[in-house]
Amino acid sequence: WTLQVSESESQHPACRAWPQPAAAPDRRKSVTRLFAPVMPAVGSQQSVIPPGLPKLPGNGFKDPTAVHYAKTHVFDVQNGIPAMKSTGSIIPPSPPPRRGGAVLMQPATAFAGANALSPTKTQPAQGSEAATPAWIAFDRKVLRFNCHFDEEVHDSQAEASRVRKCILYYYLEDDSMHICEPKVENSGLGIDPTKSAVYLKRHRVPKPEGDFFGATDLNIGLTIDIYGRVFTLTDCDGFTRTFLEKLGIEVPQAIEEPTDGYTSTRAAVKAHVGGRPRPVNDALIRGVEASLGASSHLLEGDRLGQFLDNDRKVLRFYMAWDDRKKLYGELRPFILHYYLADDHMEVVEVKTRNNGRDPFPLFVKKGKVYKNIDSYTSIDSPTTHTTQNIGRSGRVDPATMEAFTEADFGIGKSIKVLGVEFFIHACDEFTRDYYQKVHGVELVDVPFVYEEKWERPKMPVPPHTGWAAIGSEEDSLNSMQHLVPKPPKKDMKKLMDKDGVILRFLARFETEAEEDTGRQFVIKFYCANDTIAVFEPPLKNSGLVGGKFIERTTLRKAGTQKEDGTWEFWLQGDFYTGAVVELNGWRFVIYQADEYTLSYMEAHPEQHPMSSIAYICEQAAPVLAEKREALLADFAAADPSESGYVNYEPFQAALAGAGMELNDQVLVTLLRRFDVRKDGTVSYRELMNPDSNLWK
Fold first, then answer.
1. Distance between CA atoms of 653 and 15, rounded to whole angstroms?
2. String of b and e for 575-589 (b: at least 16 CB within 10 Å)?
3. CA–CA dist 603, 619 (Å, integer)
4. For tag attachment on the chain, is the N or C end more exposed, with fewer CB atoms within 10 Å?
5. What is the arithmetic mean of pLDDT over 168-185?
6. Which residues, including other chains, have CB under 8 Å from residue 695's CB and lie 6 or more apart?
């Protein structure tokens, strides 16, 4: 081992006794000498023993000029990778990693992977940096070969030998290998084909001649003798092929694996019969596999796949139980739910009011329902609670194990559930589509009428007159319907949005009496709560005292009483110019509205269709197109200057002459819309142009 000794250390009394080297020509301040192996003493400093002295306590000395007392170490971590220290190490550098007697990889390519492998047979010179150890350079790098061997069969007349296929794994990090054999169906090695059996545990396998197998001993087409068993390598994976080619080893193409006659015969028989029976379909196979310790989920059907495919899919049938042949029997409706996810079913009773029965949630709880209920109560069975009807002979009756499936249901069929016979007469749309797509059966509902039930007569609503007329009609109706009176609910959003919105109309009586023909009234409609107030302006020398005619309240329409005793009330859409309204027995004809009311009605056409220009255009456009020539002639006669504008009176006369009897509110809307100059004239050219922007 090499130790560096400084010039000051050489003046130590113990060092003077050592043989001194000749002076170097370049007069270096440090010299190099070979000493005996270093013995580290107990402590943080390093002690040395001169050669020739026994290795006993007291013969060593400590360097008084030492500054750093850190212990030397070999293993280190560089850039997150475990490595060995090379600079200043007291251990000589390791040679490059070898596999099977050959140098496999340069230190610089230790972590580059199979694609960066660079085979070399030169070893780094003495004094260069140490190579990465093999357990790091080849960590998780495995060669994989497909192989097979022939096994003799002595106790069978159908075959003399059988080809057993295996997989050989060679681990580059420690030259170990192991062999596994994939499980084959019906081979006696298990029933789960997704796992493999370990044929040879992982270890370094010796050759018959005494050495160990290496990477260069494995290639496609070679045969290897492992503990007296001869394996033939037939194929390898892509990584193995690339790795061997980087080493300069030629890798042949894959060899077809041989097959024995018995396996080929079994495969032909299996293809002819359609495969081996599954445990879920064969009781004998299920019993044998269960006795060998197979898991229960392997013995049953694919319950998980059925659940994932049919989750939340339920068939619904409407049934009837006719029990009227018995004393106090009746016809009762039921609903059957069949869950496709787990083949469970339940029967739900349809609840009706005042039927005199307790409100049980279910008639039959969700679960498997067996067709033969006698197996539960058979006194000849050893265990009466089982679903298997076991007789004295000890045999199981297969009929007792049959449960209801979706194939047992259909409209027009009768089923017996727990001793009760139901008749299926209808189903829902999902069930109808499911049977059409899956079973190709079209389900048509059967007309079925249940007995009409007697209904308790309802108390009539008294009229809102007399003592019951105290307060609003809604308030009085709640007092009659509830033992504890409740105030009527109000539309608070409507109250806030339409607070202060009042529509004002001028109206007169629809009467022929001379004393009432000249009377005028102001009808106010409050949009916040749909209340109406009527006021009569005073007229001089009329002989009538003006003032409040109808106090503000909600007014109902005459002759609109419903079966439940409620009435229809007047709404804001019922008031417009030309409308006739009957308020408290008085018939009013509305003939005028103020500017605010007209503007509000035009701004809300969804509630006032008579003020909607889109609605008027839809209704009047075909008539205007049909009578276009006659209308233009009348407008031209009323417009000698050909200005394109006519007054209100000629405009109304032209429309009336063409047979267009328009509502007063519609006429007002047209006049306001096409009075472009706001001077009392109408632009008839814009009116007759269907593409005009005024129609939009």
1. 140
2. bbbebebebeebebb
3. 19
4. C
5. 90
6. 613, 617, 621, 689
Contact 566, 556 (CB under 8 A): no
Q: How large is the average pLDDT for residues 283-305?
A: 73
Amino acid at the residue 263 = T
C-beta separation of 8 from 65 below 8 A: yes
Sheet with strand 161-171: strands edge to edge: 196-203, 176-182, 161-171, 142-152, 229-236, 223-226
Two tokens at 579? Answer: 């409308």
Helices 613-626 & 628-638, crossing angle to 10 degrees? 100
Q: What is the DSSP string of 44-74?
A: SS-EE--TTS-S-TTS-EE-TT----PPP-S
Beta carbons within 8 Å of 688's beta carbon, 6+ residues apart: 624, 628, 631, 632, 635
What confidence tens digit (pLDDT) does each residue in 6-36 have?
Answer: 444 444 443 444 444 444 444 333 333 333 3
Query: In this predicted structure, what is the pLDDT of residue 39?
Result: 43
Residue with tokens 């306001």: 672
CA atoms within 13 A on the CB side of 190: 11
CA distance 237 to 199: 20
Residue 449 has which token pair? Answer: 């009428």
Beta strand 142-152 with 229-236: parallel, antiparallel or unpaired?
antiparallel
The radius of gyration of the chain from alpha carbons, rounded to an integer in Å, stands at 53
**DSSP-derived secondary structure for 470-532:** SS-HHHHHHHHH-SS--PPP--HHHHHHTTT-EEEEEEEE----HHHHT-EEEEEEETTTTEE
pLDDT score at 91: 38
Burial class (CB in 10 A: 0-12, 13-18, 19+), 506: middle
What pLDDT does residue 379 have? 43
Strands (E), 616-696: 645-647, 681-683
Three-class SS of residue 436?
A: helix
For residue 153, give Cα distances in angstroms to 149, 164, 269: 13, 12, 21
- Tell me which residue has tokens 């089982």: 386
> For residue 363, which of 339, 335, 387 has the smallest C-alpha distance?
335
Residues 461, 465, 466, 472, CA torsion sign: positive
Q: Which of 8-12, 183-187, 298-302, 429-433 has the highest mean pLDDT?
A: 429-433
Residues in the chain: 696
Which one-letter DSSP state was computed for residue 390?
B
C-alpha 470/C-alpha 478 separation (Å) is 12
Residue pLDDT, tens place only, 217-273: 999 999 999 999 999 999 999 999 999 999 999 999 999 999 888 888 888 877 776
Q: Could you tell me which of 176, 173, 178 has the C-alpha nearest to residue 147?
A: 178
Helices (H) and strands (E) in the chain, counts: 19, 28
Binning pLDDT at 50, 70 and 90, where does residue 634 land? Answer: confident
Phi/psi region, residue 100 (left: phi>0; alpha: psi -120 to 50; beta: rest), is left
Choose between 650 and 437: higher pLDDT: 437
429 neighbors 330 (Cβ within 8 angstroms)? no
Task: Give 75 or 166, the one with higher predicted confidence.
Answer: 166
User: Is residue 64 exposed (0-12), middle (13-18) or buried (19+ Cβ within 10 Å)?
Assistant: exposed
Give the C-alpha separation, 607 to 609, whole Å: 6
The whole-number pLDDT of residue 468 equals: 54
